[in-house]
Amino acid sequence: MNKKISGDARAFIGLGSNLGDPAERVRAGMAALARLAATRVEACSSLYRSAPVGRQDQPDFINAVCRVRTGLAPAALMQQLLKIETVHGRERRGEKGGPRTLDLDLLLYGDEAIHSESLTVPHPRLNERAFVLYPLSELEPDLVIPGRGPVGELLAACAGQRLQKMDV
Hints:
Layout: E1 9-17, H1 22-34, E2 39-44, E3 48-50, E4 61-70, H2 74-87, E5 103-109, E6 114-115, E7 120-121, H3 130-139, E8 144-145, E9 149-150, H4 151-156, E10 163-165
């Protein structure tokens, strides 16, 4: 899909699932991103299997990252991501870090640092999570995370986290 985007910003969106067929759910999330108004998916990483962070009594996650160009403002983009989650059966209740059908996170939006009640960009803790950093580095090995540093250096701190690139 080759949409023309005016006034666009480069953004990175993390996708994850660990319920049902998580790989298919992540692919469905990627397809939904491609249908967003004023947004064009430029590239998506491979899928990665990762151990849950925090709550351990749940299945492994399947994760990926997509790089998009969007004419949507950060808050509007985040609202669209939440709508996609809802369409795909995500219910936001109970404790954080639990199982989910589809999770979409706005990881980066240009070089902006955003701190509001509803949105924090760069995404909190992204610099501590191999399941985000490896897909980001696959898409852009020289990426510098605003306020955090080069993705390659951040990866070194996540070396002990279980992560497996999938052959799909």
